[in-house]
Write a structure and sequence with these properties.
This protein is of the alpha/beta class. Helix content is 42%, strand content 13%. It has a single domain, classed as TIM Barrel (Alpha-Beta Barrel). A hairpin with a 6-residue loop joins strand 11 and strand 12. The structure holds 5-hydroxymethyl-3,4-dihydroxypiperidine.
């Protein structure tokens, strides 16, 4: 890995901040989802990062990272009438200034799923007007922070926001229509494209990208039905988002399949307007890739994301507490595939990490050897991809702190810093020191 390689850690606002009722914050769809009892625990307090960020940044400083990927809560900085909330901006000013003073470069994710509830009430992501509201918010934050923040990620994981939020209803806002999910996904991608232009206008030296999650897959056998199911799964889970971002438009096989299934009209969907695909394909400086696991697909699994069943020739090196198969070589292979298919100018691993629930022992140490092995094997896979010619220029470990893992609550622990969610005590895990040593090696 070369001199310019960026080593970082990542979090998101709802998962760590808490401070739900502080300084004029309005509700997001996750606050509502939690109020409706759809989360085992709420994010009202989370890791109380809202009040403890100076200590958290001091810990990051001990870690020695170059960069910190964090998200801004839309609901802190813009009120329900679209007016700027100065107190919300001031909170992030405090974080950004403390990071810069510590020599850590802030990488901002503008949207990590916390849509203002008022916009969901007006139609949410399936409604095109949400894009204008997002652009207004992007304009505010890029204008305000652009003098100090040079690396911007527009949208985090549009597949998750669209499919889990609007099709499966297991994530906020909890709606269950594939037609809505496809419209939501399109509008999230358009919001990305619009944001690229807005950020560039406000911050001429910005580097802008999007964080796409992926679920690389392979057929369970050479059997025709398994191969076709795998092709469909890849279209549903990956190509539907990667192809338009890189100017290939929506994959024709999936447009046909969705029309046949009755999710889309057989003619052009009503949400696809002239010029949309050009907007979505805005030039980006890097592709952010979030990778956790890969999956084997058999007939019947065309649209089923489940990482626990791994038939076939390549058994995983175990499972994380999420039940996700540990498949580092899947990352190496997928990086090669992305390079060959889309030729992105640069790839940044914007998330990679593992949930293991190791707790402090009697001596206070958190011996999370399984996480160290996971991280080591995935960083080695990236290194190998780089040797094979893929331009990977950064790695953000998910996550810095044990945090609110959405509908899994606090039970799933991805952090390299253990958080006791009752006392809010932070304890460095052994993986923290492992990562500190790993990133301090001469490059
Ligand atoms: O915690 C999430 C994060 O918010 C988005 N990417 C996947 C992580 C682990 O599930």
């Amino acid at each position: 890995m070369g001199n310019e390689f960026t080593w970082g850690v990542a979090t998101s606002a709802y998962q760590i901040e808490g401070g739900r009722f502080e300084d004029g914050k309005v509700d997001s769809i996750w606050d509502t989802f939690s109020d409706k009892g759809q989360l085992p625990e709420s994010g009202d307090v989370a890791c109380d990062h809202y009040h403890r960020y100076p200590d958290d940044i001091a810990l990051m400083s001990q870690l020695g990272v170059d960069a910190y990927r964090m998200s801004i809560a839309w609901t802190r900085v813009v009120d329900n009438s679209g007016r700027v909330n100065p107190a919300g901006l001031a909170f992030y000013d405090g974080i950004i200034d403390a990071l810069l003073a510590a020599g850590i470069s802030p990488w901002i994710t503008i949207y990590h799923w916390d849509l203002p509830q008022s916009l969901e009430d007006a139609g949410g992501w399936p409604d095109r007007h949400t894009i204008d509201a997002f652009d207004h918010y992007t304009n505010i934050v890029s204008n305000h922070f652009g003098n100090r923040v040079k690396n911007w990620i527009t949208i985090n994981e549009p597949w998750v926001a669209a499919m889990l939020g609007y099709r499966e209803g297991v994530f906020a806002p909890g709606r269950t229509s594939m037609a809505d999910a496809l419209a939501a996904g399109h509008h999230l991608l358009l919001a990305h494209g619009r944001a690229v232009a807005t950020i560039r206008a406000n911050v001429p030296d910005a580097r802008v990208g999007i964080a796409l999650d992926c679920r690389p897959s392979r057929p369970a056998s050479a059997n025709e039905a398994d191969v076709a199911a795998n092709r469909h799964f890849d279209g549903f889970r990956n190509r539907w988002f990667f192809d338009p971002v890189f100017g290939l438009g929506y994959p024709q096989d999936m447009l046909n399949a969705y029309a046949t299934a009755g999710y889309l009209p057989s003619t052009r969907p009503d949400w696809l307007k002239d010029g949309d695909l050009e907007t979505i394909a805005a030039d980006i400086d890097f592709l952010g890739l979030n990778y956790y696991t890969s999956q084997t697909i058999a007939a019947g699994g065309e649209e089923v994301e489940t990482a626990t069943i791994q038939p076939g020739p390549n058994p995983p090196a175990g499972y994380t507490d999420m039940g996700w198969a540990i498949t580092p070589d899947g990352l190496r292979q997928y990086l090669g595939h992305l390079n060959d298919t889309y030729a992105p100018p640069s790839i940044i691993i914007t998330e990679n990490g593992a949930s293991f629930a190791d707790a402090p022992g009697p001596d206070g140490q958190v011996r999370d050897l399984r996480r160290q092995r996971y991280l080591e094997s995935h960083i080695e896979a990236i290194d190998q991809a780089i040797r094979e010619g893929v331009a990977v220029d950064g790695y953000f470990l998910w996550s810095f702190l044990d945090n609110l893992e959405w509908t899994s609550g606090y039970a799933q622990r991805f952090g390299i810093v253990h958080v006791d969610h009752t006392s809010q005590t932070r304890t460095r895990k052994e993986s923290f020191d492992w990562y500190r040593r790993r990133i301090s090696r001469p490059r």
